[in-house]
Specification:
Chain A has strands at residues 4-7, 10-13, 19-25, 33-38, 45-49, 53-54, 62-67, 70-75, 85-90, 97-98, 102-106. With 107 residues, chain A is mainly β. The mean pLDDT of chain A is 96. In chain B, a hairpin with a 4-residue loop joins β7 (68-73) and β8. The chains are: A mainly beta (107), B mainly beta (120).
Chain lengths: 107, 120
């Protein structure tokens, strides 16, 4: 099973700042990596698929990069509604795994 | 507009059974791969099972193999998850999710979830 490790566990930033979230895979997943945002009491929402393609309706301040084992989700300038938990997910192996999540909180 | 509406959750004793349903609308259901993903209280996301559009191919995470069965009725645009021999560790919100082939089979659209609690 491929393990995804997200860092940091918690990120404290202020609105307007740049956020950089990391996801590292225990073995190569090529570009089969997605990012999701989850707010309290809500279902997750797809942000990025194929490591770098924004899903429909996702603002341009969200961007994804990386391939192989190291991936990054960047939020260029944080809006108040961006404070949430973010998960990465891979489907390269026979099974599907999620990272443990990064909580993005207001500083 | 895509809509996924789960039902069937509730409180069940260890060893018991439950069947979850997910009514889909707003898209050609039969052409889409569908999955169940769960989230234990206060924890992260865990993929549970996937079924192909025709229903011919199914996949499960190891912890539910032999206990859970995913199925679909394309005539009713409905996805199911039959859960048997339930354990305390199966307690979670279960999400029905549409997978989009054009988006690298990402978990594209999620239902609101249904809570399953396994407890005596």
């Amino acid at each position: 099973e491929i393990v995804l490790t997200q860092s940091p566990a918690t990120l404290s930033l202020s609105p307007g700042e740049r956020a950089t979230l990391s996801c590292r895979a225990s073995q190569s997943v090529s570009s089969s990596l997605a990012w999701y945002q989850q707010k309290p009491g809500q279902a997750p929402r797809l942000l990025i698929y194929g490591a770098s393609t924004r899903a429909t309706g996702i603002p341009a301040r969200f961007s994804g990069s990386g391939s192989g084992t190291d991936f990054t989700l960047t939020i260029s300038s944080l809006e108040p509604e961006d404070f949430a938990v973010y998960y990465c997910q891979q489907r390269s192996s026979g099974s599907i795994t999620f990272g443990q999540g990064t909580r993005l909180e207001i500083k | 507009e895509v809509q996924l509406l789960e039902s069937g959750g509730g409180l069940v004793q260890p060893g018991g059974s439950l069947r979850l349903s997910c009514a889909a609308s707003g898209f050609p259901f039969t052409t889409y791969v569908m999955s169940w993903v769960r989230q234990a209280p206060g924890k992260g996301l865990e993929w549970v099972s996937t079924i192909s559009g025709s229903g011919a191919n199914t996949y499960y995470t190891d912890s539910v193999k032999g206990r859970f069965t995913i199925s679909r009725d394309n005539s009713k645009d409905t996805l199911y998850l039959q859960m048997n021999s339930l354990r305390a560790e199966d307690t979670a919100v279960y999400y029905c999710v549409m997978r989009e082939a054009a988006a690298d089979l990402a978990f594209y659209c999620w239902g609101q979830g249904t809570l399953v609690t396994v407890s005596s």
